[in-house]
Amino acid sequence: MLLITINAIPSALGKNRRAYLTSFILNNEIIGNGFSNAIYSDDTVSFEATAYALEILDDYGINPHEIEALQNNLENNVDEMFNNDEVVLYDLFFLMKSLNILQHEDIDLENRIYKYLNDTEQIGGGFSFKNSTSSANLASTYYVIQLYLLIDEPINNLTAHKNWILSCNNSDGGYGGSQGLSSTLTDTFFVVSLLDELWGIDALVDMNKTLHYLKSFYVDDSADLNSFGGYLPDEIAQYALLSSTFFCVKSISLIDPDLSELNSASTMVWVLARQYFEDGGFAENSEGYEQKTSSVISSYYGFETLRVFNALSSLAGEIWMVEFNFWILGIVLMSIGIIIALIVFLWRKRRI
Fold first, then answer.
1. Following DSSP, what letter does each residue of 288-343 receive, concatenated?
2. What value does the mean pLDDT take over residues 153-178?
3. What is the C-alpha to C-alpha distance for residues 229 and 240, in angstroms, rounded to an integer?
């Protein structure tokens, strides 16, 4: 009877992973302005979260509210950067990425950006974060080149930039932020991505070493319930992260398109386990009993990692149990109480 009662709980309570994810993203929408990174934030628009939210929603054919107002506000943010002479490449990239997703084009604005990007070019190769500085690094070079591609403008002196990027190589197979700096996972991801987009992955200084460097972050200890299947952000990190897992998986997939160097099954299980059904988004690992907090940015990394494995269909799986709340708990407890009372009643009746 208990089983019958539990099964009688409406199946409509069940939602699939995709529905949870898109609901989470829409709950972070600041209508007409963009998206915050987390539901519990102070309603501050995050340019990065906005671009990622729009990309996921666009993938499912879902439009944000008040598109025209959103387009205008995003463009105003770009104008404000230039008018105040406070251009931040990182923010500029995500603003333009959002406008690109929304299919909004402004030729005058793009010309302004193109001129600024050209002024960040360094003679020896690479690009700086600002047009007033003369030090190139991989992060600024990555975002400048991505902006060139977004506004569909040519990149001058490609050979010089390629040689400078390759000069950031280290003996461990990774790449540092500039010549002489230690390798980092993020910088290595920047290099692999840029080479794949502009010159071909074969341009890597030593493909096998880079592959080995990326694979070294994989957590293969099945006893590590928090991280098994994921990738650490650095050599001393305690937990695998969705961001570092995406950087590794994406980079390895560009070097090895048939994915034979990836532990696909365990990594997909690890990624899906990061979806936090309290709010529907993906959350990074936290220490001890610290409350997990989902974010749009973490959700994007989880989403894109699944895309690499051609496994976005896994988000169609229905898991009604995540809707288990105090209302359902009350029904179950009442059912148990009724069953116990019925058993006692029948037992006493038999004694009579």
1. TTPPP-EEHHHHHHHHHHHHHTT-GGGGG-B-GGGG--HHHHHHHHHHHHHHHHHH
2. 97
3. 8
Q: Is the pLDDT of residue 16 over 60?
A: yes
The pTM (predicted TM-score) of the whole model is 0.86
- In the chain, the DSSP E strands lie at 29-30, 34-35, 175-176, 183-184, 282-283, 294-295
Number of domains into which the chain is organized:
2
Q: In 3D, which of 296, 249, 291, 299 has the Cα closest to residue 274? A: 299
pLDDT recorded at residue 286? 66
Q: Is 231 left (phi over 0), alpha (psi -120 to 50) or beta?
A: beta
Pick from 188, 107, 196: nearest CA to 146: 196
> Does residue 305 sit in the same domain as residue 332?
no
The DSSP call for residue 129 is: S
Domain with 46, as residue range(s), is 16-325
